[in-house]
Design goal:
Blueprint lengths: L7 E11 L2 E10 H13 L3 E7 L5 E6 L8 H10 L4 H12 L4 E5 L13
Antiparallel strand pairs: 1-2, 1-3, 2-5, 3-4
């Protein structure tokens, strides 16, 4: 949170599409709208991981969500460890930080997808 409780957040959701494809959705919100976006992202049934970032790219809060049940535990652990460094996430955050877009969605390019032997 910023000074005096003002919020200007970028909320990222990693969404399950299929075992070999996730999506990085990002939304920018201010004040109460930011809180609503965060809560909606956390409660979306296909959200694997959610994160809140400030306008300088600093991670403020986040964690696994209900969609994490759709992926192997080892994949979730890699995602949690890597999320703030994944180029697709950084690209989405960069677009949101510029303020020209309020929402961005991109297919997650990541080398941590589960192998065939790891899928449930």
């Amino acid at each position: 949170m910023g000074f005096f409780g003002s919020k200007d957040w970028n909320v990222i959701a990693i969404i399950f599409e299929r075992p070999d494809m996730y999506r990085a959705n990002g939304n920018r919100g201010k004040g109460g709208e930011a809180t609503t976006i965060r809560d909606n992202v956390k409660n979306h049934p296909r959200t694997i991981f959610w994160g809140v970032f400030d306008q300088k790219g600093a991670f403020l809060e986040g964690g696994p969500a209900g969609g994490a049940r759709s992926i192997p535990t080892t994949t979730l652990q890699r995602l949690v460890r890597d999320v703030a460094k994944i180029p697709t996430v950084l690209e989405v955050l960069g677009i949101l930080e510029k303020g020209t877009e309020k929402s961005v969605s991109k297919t997650l390019v990541w080398n941590g997808y589960p192998t065939k032997s790891e899928t449930k």
